[in-house]
């Protein structure tokens, strides 16, 4: 799609306050796709004022009508699915097949789930002699990352609109074209002017202005834990609500009774998906010592198949970061069994699918989020050791458990300090709450739990 040279504010594309722009680069061939405005605090203020003005009418709109607008949005996204996939592939570098299957499809499912939920959610209930109302919190500042550009937008905007909130979105600067396409879809779906607004720009400028704006009632942020801390501190000073979906270092625990080959192959696929740029990726594979060398061999063989099947990472900075972690793993004594730090191509920000063995839980690559196609395989001695290792990071976003008996897997999963666990390869559920324990965040996204983040409670006693 052709980049817009303005901001989507109050139902129209409007000129930016400044003249600075951001280049959008295809990470596969390093060619410039276009330029978008680098928004300023003035642009953010204009968008927030539009959202504030639109809030009373949208909050008073019957839930059934809000549901209808979300249903229309789902239909527009469905009609433009091919364009969405092509846009994500161009600015993120994702293989087109993955963009079609995941980047374009999952947001449609999520938008549809909120269209249904908005029509059925109990926004009021009787509790004894009280009537309890769930009311929209107000203006939402949504700050989204580049790794799943449309999904992360829909996962914030759809529940906010379903709740009756209005939104100002600041998308990641690497993938703004997908956000502009979403703004077009919002307009086509008939969402009233001012209910959704888009400001493109850099995080330290536009993102910070949005998080600090006194007329923003809630900040919903997905990104690094470091930035999440700053947003949390800013919001805390203003006693402002936040929803933070942050980093992860998820464990894939393979118990001795599991189908080892299946668990390893699915685990490797999980890490390599989206070039490893998934906050919930199972980047630590925990295997019983008796099965360890077999698992390492299986993982190395599986990873080798992804050499020409995954796309690049998003930009040169991210490529250097991931390669630096691979170097760090080697320097700290981990055994490289697949991939390595060398770039596999002369052009583009590619990283080899990489697997490390002989990783100890204390190593940097076992503790820090790499955000690239890098897997650490870690041995454990018994179940207690596996629980200790799995819970032994500052993160607690996701994970997986494999066992021959489902009850055994569930019992182990209940001991994990993490927000979401897949049992024996459980399927993605767009209505299940997603979010983390510990430094992986505050709050939940998706489903009814995601909707509740954008609501506040009032009770009337009779």
From TrEMBL:
Pfam families in UniProt: Aldedh
Catalytic residues of the enzyme: 245
Domain of life: Bacteria
Residue stretches making up the Aldehyde dehydrogenase domain: 13-459
CDD domains: ALDH_CddD_SSP0762
Keyword annotations: Oxidoreductase
Protein's name in the database: Aldehyde dehydrogenase family protein
């Amino acid at each position: 799609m052709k980049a817009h040279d303005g901001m989507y504010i109050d139902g129209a594309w409007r000129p930016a306050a400044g003249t600075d722009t951001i280049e959008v680069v295809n990470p596969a061939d390093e060619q410039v796709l276009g330029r978008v405005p680098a928004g300023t605090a003035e642009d953010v203020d204009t968008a927030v004022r539009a959202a504030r003005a639109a809030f009373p009418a949208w909050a008073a709109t019957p839930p059934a009508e809000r549901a209808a607008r979300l249903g229309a949005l789902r239909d527009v996204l469905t009609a433009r699915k091919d364009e969405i996939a092509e846009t994500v592939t161009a600015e993120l570098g994702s293989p087109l097949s993955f963009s079609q299957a995941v980047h374009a499809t999952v947001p449609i499912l999520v938008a549809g789930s909120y269209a249904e939920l908005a029509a059925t959610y109990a926004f009021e209930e009787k509790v004894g002699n009280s009537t309890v109302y769930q009311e929209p919190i107000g203006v939402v500042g949504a700050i989204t990352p580049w790794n799943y550009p449309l999904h992360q937008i829909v996962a914030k905007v759809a529940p906010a609109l379903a709740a009756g909130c209005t939104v100002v979105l600041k998308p990641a600067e690497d993938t703004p074209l997908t956000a502009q396409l979403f703004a077009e879809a919002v307009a086509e779906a008939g969402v009233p002017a001012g209910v959704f607004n888009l400001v493109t720009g850099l995080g330290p400028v536009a993102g910070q202005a949005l998080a600090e704006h006194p007329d923003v009632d809630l900040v919903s942020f997905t990104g690094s834990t470091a930035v999440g801390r700053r947003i949390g501190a800013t919001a805390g000073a203003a006693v402002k609500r936040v929803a933070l979906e942050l980093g992860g270092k998820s464990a894939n625990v393979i118990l001795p009774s599991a189908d080892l080959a299946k668990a390893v192959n699915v685990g490797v696929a999980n890490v390599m998906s989206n070039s490893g740029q998934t906050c919930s990726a199972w980047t630590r594979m925990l295997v019983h010592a008796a099965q360890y060398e077999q698992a390492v061999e299986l993982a190395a063989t599986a990873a080798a198949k992804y050499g020409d099947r995954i796309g690049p990472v998003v930009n040169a900075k991210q490529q250097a970061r991931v390669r630096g972690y691979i170097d760090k793993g080697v320097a700290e004594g981990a055994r490289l069994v697949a991939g390595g730090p060398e770039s596999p191509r002369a052009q583009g920000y590619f990283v080899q699918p990489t697997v490390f063995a002989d990783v100890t839980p204390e190593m940097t690559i076992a503790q820090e989020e790499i955000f690239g196609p890098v897997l650490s395989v870690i041995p454990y001695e018994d179940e207690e050791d596996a629980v200790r290792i799995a819970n032994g990071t500052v993160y607690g976003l996701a994970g997986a458990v494999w066992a021959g008996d489902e009850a055994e897997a569930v019992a182990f999963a209940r001991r994990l300090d993490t927000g979401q666990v897949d049992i024996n390869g459980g399927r993605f559920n767009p209505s299940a709450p997603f979010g983390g324990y510990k430094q992986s965040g505050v709050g939940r996204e998706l489903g009814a739990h995601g909707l509740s983040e954008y609501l506040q409670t009032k009770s009337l006693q009779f």
